[in-house]
TrEMBL record:
<feature type="domain" description="CBS">
    <location>
        <begin position="195"/>
        <end position="254"/>
    </location>
</feature>
<dbReference type="InterPro" id="IPR046342">
    <property type="entry name" value="CBS_dom_sf"/>
</dbReference>
<dbReference type="Pfam" id="PF07085">
    <property type="entry name" value="DRTGG"/>
</dbReference>
<keyword id="KW-0129">CBS domain</keyword>
<dbReference type="InterPro" id="IPR006683">
    <property type="entry name" value="Thioestr_dom"/>
</dbReference>
<dbReference type="InterPro" id="IPR036390">
    <property type="entry name" value="WH_DNA-bd_sf"/>
</dbReference>
<protein>
    <submittedName>
        <fullName>DRTGG domain-containing protein</fullName>
    </submittedName>
</protein>
<dbReference type="InterPro" id="IPR036388">
    <property type="entry name" value="WH-like_DNA-bd_sf"/>
</dbReference>
<dbReference type="InterPro" id="IPR028979">
    <property type="entry name" value="Ser_kin/Pase_Hpr-like_N_sf"/>
</dbReference>
<dbReference type="Pfam" id="PF00571">
    <property type="entry name" value="CBS"/>
</dbReference>
<dbReference type="InterPro" id="IPR000644">
    <property type="entry name" value="CBS_dom"/>
</dbReference>
<dbReference type="InterPro" id="IPR010766">
    <property type="entry name" value="DRTGG"/>
</dbReference>
<dbReference type="Pfam" id="PF03061">
    <property type="entry name" value="4HBT"/>
</dbReference>
<dbReference type="InterPro" id="IPR029069">
    <property type="entry name" value="HotDog_dom_sf"/>
</dbReference>
<feature type="domain" description="CBS">
    <location>
        <begin position="256"/>
        <end position="314"/>
    </location>
</feature>
<dbReference type="InterPro" id="IPR051257">
    <property type="entry name" value="Diverse_CBS-Domain"/>
</dbReference>
Length: 435
C-alpha cells in the first residue's frame, strides 16, 4: 500500500507541465495535512519535478535529464541577469537550448533564431515579434522596453520577454558563466547518483527477530542491514557481529546499534568516502530530512564510483583541474613535481594564490601516494607555511616526502621551491583509500 507521501508525488507527476502547485490545494484535493503536502512538494522539487519561481509560484516542470543539466530555465536567466519580465511569465519554467546575439540584419538573425532558443537583442521591436513567432524567448538589453502588442504575443505564446539594464556583451558573458558553473556541478557525484534505491534495498524492522536476519542474509548474501520503525525511519543498524551467539527469537531492537551513521542523497561522494574509510563502515543508509529510508550505499559502490570519475574527461575546469593539468613529474626524479604559475593560478596582485598553493602540495602528495602505495588520499589535516610570494610565470618545484605511512594513514612533508629558493612548506595528515 502506498503512503500519502508517495500518493502526492504520483499526483504531481500526473499533472501537466506548467501547472501551478500549492500546499493548500494539494492538501484539499488529496485530503492530507498541510505539513504532509509541504514535505511532498519539497521532495518533488528535489527530484526535479517542480520548481519554485519568484513572483510566479511552484510550477510543474519537465524533469531535467542529467546529460542536459547544463541547460538553464528562463527563470534562472532572469535571476542571473537581474532582469524584469515584460511578458510571457507563464513560460519561465521552460529551458533554453541555445542563445543568439542579435547583432546582424533581421533576416540573418531569424535564420539562427529557433524554437526554445533565446534572442539577445536591443530595442528592435520587429526582431522581438519575429523571435516570439518563431518560438524563441527574447532578452532585451540596455534597459529598453518593447511594444504592448509584443508583450501580448509573449503572453499568448507563453514565451518570456525579459529586459535587463546590462549590455549585450555582459549578458552573454553572464549566461556563459552560469552554463559553465552548471557543467562543473554536473561532474560532482552525489550519494543519490550511486545509491541503491529504496525498492532494491534490504532492511529489517524493529520488531523483526534474529531469525529474520538469517533469512534476509541468505536471500541477499549481505550481513549488514538498516533497521526501521513503523514509519520507515532509520533507527539502527544490525550486522553479523551484533547477532552472533544470540537466540534466534531475540528481537532486532535489542541487539541493533542505535543512532547509526546516515547520509542524504545530496551528500557528496568525497564526503561519504571519507566517513566510510575513517570509521570502517561497509554500508550506510541514505535518508531524507525526516530520517526516512531512501536507499543504501555500500563502500564498494563508493570506491567503484571514485575510480570511474578518475577515468572521465573533465568538461568544466575547476582550480583543482587547472592545478592538476599543470603539474608534471620531473624528468630526473618522478617523485618530484614541477609546475608553471599561469594567470589562472594567481591572485589580483599577480602572485600565486594561497588556495592554489594548497592545491599544488595536495595534488603532489596524492600522486606520490598513488606511486608508492597505489592509493588515493583524503586530507585529514593540513598545515601550510608561506615564505615568499611567487610571481606569475615562475617555475615551481614541489618535493613531497613520506614521513610515515601505515595501512590507513600517511604523513607527508612537502617543500616548494622557486629558482632553488624555498617559498613554502606543507605538512599533510591523510587517510588512504586503497584501490
Amino acid at each position: 500500500m502506498t503512503t500519502k507521501h508517495e500518493q502526492i508525488i504520483q499526483y504531481i507527476i500526473s499533472l501537466s507541465v506548467g501547472n501551478k502547485i500549492s500546499v493548500r490545494q494539494i492538501a484539499k484535493d488529496l485530503n492530507v495535512s498541510d505539513g504532509t503536502a509541504y514535505r511532498a512538494i519539497k521532495e518533488a522539487e528535489n527530484q526535479g519535478l517542480v520548481s519554485t519561481i519568484e513572483r510566479v509560484g511552484t510550477i510543474r516542470i519537465e524533469r531535467k535529464k542529467k546529460e542536459n543539466f547544463e541547460q538553464l530555465t528562463f527563470a534562472e536567466i532572469v535571476n542571473i541577469i537581474d532582469g524584469q519580465v515584460l511578458g510571457g511569465r507563464d513560460g519561465l519554467y521552460k529551458t533554453l537550448s541555445k542563445f543568439v546575439i542579435g547583432a546582424m540584419q533581421l533576416d540573418a538573425m531569424m535564420r539562427y533564431t529557433q524554437a526554445d532558443s533565446l534572442l539577445i537583442v536591443g530595442n528592435r521591436f520587429k526582431a522581438h515579434e519575429l523571435a516570439l513567432t518563431a518560438g524563441a524567448a527574447v532578452l532585451i538589453t540596455g534597459g529598453f522596453d518593447t511594444e504592448d502588442h509584443v508583450k501580448k504575443l509573449a503572453d499568448e505564446k507563453k514565451l518570456p520577454i525579459i529586459s535587463t539594464s546590462y549590455d549585450t556583451f555582459t549578458v552573454a558573458a553572464m549566461i556563459n558563466r552560469a552554463i559553465y558553473d552548471q557543467l562543473i556541478k554536473k561532474e560532482i557525484v552525489f550519494v543519490g547518483d550511486i545509491a541503491t534505491s529504496f525498492e532494491e534495498s534490504y532492511f529489517l524492522r524493529v520488531k523483526d527477530t534474529i531469525a529474520d536476519w538469517y533469512e534476509l542474509n541468505e536471500k541477499s548474501s549481505h550481513s549488514r542491514f538498516p533497521v526501521v520503525d513503523d514509519k520507515l525511519r532509520v533507527v539502527g543498524m544490525v550486522s553479523s557481529k551484533d547477532i552472533v551467539g544470540k537466540d534466534r527469537t531475540v528481537i532486532i531492537d535489542r541487539v541493533m546499534s542505535k543512532k547509526p551513521q546516515v547520509v542524504q542523497a545530496k551528500t557528496s561522494l568525497a564526503s561519504v568516502a571519507h566517513t566510510m574509510v575513517w570509521q570502517g563502515i561497509e554500508l550506510i543508509p541514505v535518508v531524507d530530512q525526516g530520517y526516512h529510508l531512501q536507499g543504501v550505499v555500500s563502500r564498494q559502490d563508493v570506491l567503484k564510483a571514485m575510480q570511474q570519475i578518475q577515468r572521465q574527461p573533465q568538461v568544466g575546469e575547476t582550480i583543482d583541474d587547472i592545478v592538476a593539468s599543470n603539474l608534471e613529474a620531473s624528468e630526473d626524479d618522478d617523485s618530484v613535481f614541477e609546475s608553471k604559475v599561469i594567470p589562472q593560478m594567481t591572485n589580483q596582485l599577480g602572485t600565486l594564490s594561497n588556495g592554489v598553493f594548497t592545491s599544488l602540495i595536495t595534488e603532489a602528495s596524492s600522486r606520490l601516494l598513488m606511486k608508492v602505495r597505489k592509493a588515493d588520499i583524503t586530507i585529514e589535516n593540513l598545515t601550510v607555511y608561506f615564505s615568499k610570494p611567487v610571481q606569475i610565470d615562475s617555475k615551481l618545484v614541489i618535493k613531497p616526502k613520506l614521513l610515515d605511512v601505515g595501512r590507513l594513514y600517511a604523513k607527508i612533508d612537502v617543500e616548494v621551491y622557486n629558482e632553488r629558493n624555498l617559498v613554502g612548506k606543507g605538512l599533510i595528515m591523510a587517510q588512504l583509500i586503497n584501490r
